[in-house]
Amino acid sequence: MTTSSHIGDRLSVLKNFGTDPGSLSADIYIPKNFPKNGPLVVVLHGSTQSAESYDIGSGWSTLADECGIALLFPGQRKTNNSIGSFNWFKLGDSHRGGGEPLSIRQMIKQVIDDHGIDPSRVFITGMSSGGAMTSVMLATYPEVFAGGAIIAGLPYRSANTLMQAMFRMKGYGSPSDRKLNALVRGASKFSGPWPTISVWHGDSDATVDNSNASSIVRQWQKIHKVEGPPTRVEMVDGYPREVWCDADGRVVIEQYIIGKMGHGTPISAKGAEGLGEEGKYMLEVGISSTRHIADFWGLTRSGEANRSEPKTAA
User: Fold this and answer.
1) Which residues contact 209 (CB under 8 A, 6 or more apart)?
2) Cross-referenced SUPFAM superfamilies, in alphabetical order (predicted)?
């Protein structure tokens, strides 16, 4: 078993997880009640954040205690990016088999091996550059993930240079839907079943324009064979949730556009169901993206109930 050393109050450093071509750091959290063959959630922080600060803000380790979920927090180093962003737009860090994606893949394998994770229950989420890197991981290693959640992020390979990345973040020049689809299909030799996709974005995000959210949805619609308008729209904690269901009635894509929210992760820290802590890019808006994403993946009690409902035609 790989050794890990404790940092802070919650997370432990994962050491020795392969060749690490992207030169990333890795922290883990394994709750005391973690069951054999339990699930793993990979959590990617945003620019200027750390694994620990993102965990405190989002409340993932609190939910992990509640539901028995293992967590892996890949971390960027300032030597790779001066503001601590994942390099989702760099050619060397956006393809299978090298750079930051391979480092994250190696971490996942190590945690699966060390802690008896169910390899069919591995999920990934991230915010901002972490959201964009979530898009990279879902496209380049789709066989690894049952689902992914992209918060304030961008579509896979929508940019190949820093200049392009800045334009795409402002909502300019996104590739065509056909190109977006082809980029995912060309990223691996995988043919399905594909990971489910959850998309979250603030409608007042001035850092990453929310047009990127609909581009992410469109990037995955044809792959999931759910083109066109959503199957249904429902209100969740006061915000619209759009869902696209496949032919079996299973929700394969969901999208939340949070009204009047800027750039960051939506949290709800108050009350019995509260998670996380308000802070920079951790925005108190009365809905916990962490809890609802875990619900969507069937990792919470209510999510398990939803997952076990009989399927109906869309």
Assistant:
1) 169, 170, 171
2) alpha/beta-Hydrolases
Cα 137 to Cα 100: distance, rounded to the nearest angstrom: 9
Per residue in 104-136, pLDDT tens? Answer: 999 999 999 999 999 999 999 999 999 999 999
| Entry pTM | 0.95
237-268 pLDDT, tens digit each: 999 999 999 999 999 999 999 999 999 999 99
Q: What is the DSSP string of 120-153?
A: TSEEEEEETHHHHHHHHHHHH-GGG-SEEEEES-
Q: Which residue ranges form the domains of the chain, and what is each CATH number?
A: 4-306 (3.40.50.1820)
Q: What burial class does residue 282 get, using C-beta atoms within 10 Å of its C-beta: 0-12 exposed, 13-18 middle, 19+ buried? A: buried
Instruction: Classify 60 as helix, strand or coil.
Output: helix
Is it true that the peptide bond before 193 is cis, omega within 30 degrees of 0?
A: yes
Provide Rg for the chain, Cα atoms: 18
Catalytic residues: 128
**Closest by alpha carbon to 245, among 260, 263, 230?**
230
